[in-house]
Amino acid sequence: MLSGDLWDRLLDGGWITVQVTAYAAAWGTVAAVLLGLASLSPNRLVRSVVRIYVEAIRGVSAVILLFWVFYALPLLGVRLQPMSAGVLALGLNLSAYGTELVRGALQAVPRGQHEAAIAVNLSFARRTWSVVLPQAARVALPPYGNLLIEVMKASALVSLITLADLTYAAQNMRTNREADPVAIFTATLVIYFGISLVITLVTRLSERRFGRGIDTGRATGTPR
Question: Can you give the residue range of the structural domain that contains 129?
Fold first, then answer.
């Protein structure tokens, strides 16, 4: 069993994990939505730039991306604190995978919804924000929730750049032999599971919120 002090240290590390995940998810999601919209642009150059970005980021290991941001950027004159480096690297990773989710979700919105919005004279910005994105969100949220959990688990990598997250705290306890490794890492597993459970619950609540009152135009069978 762990003492109260050791639990407090793990929970403090867990709070760092939550912050890294939340900040990376926040900016990475905004980037994914913008890039997802850009990936369907009629401009071929814009689509090509987005495709290059997505393939480049997805083709790089998350740990290498993290090391590049933390260790290579300073050689180019950009020095980041461990928290900022972790948030930037994980956000980049999320934005690349999220772009594909957003693109697929946007394409899943029935064409009739676009035409109906145009018919009532909604501007491009208004129909995108009020008609298309809410319906696309319902399609994208289930896989997006899984992506957030993957980002949360990948946040353990920030321990490699000395950020005192949950994994870092657990490893320190093991190295200093402050408790039995089984107890330390069992507690760590429980905390990670708790964080992932919260992400899952928030995602499902968001699905219900976006699904309420939305008709995507799919036909329903009516008995004759």
Answer: 4-211
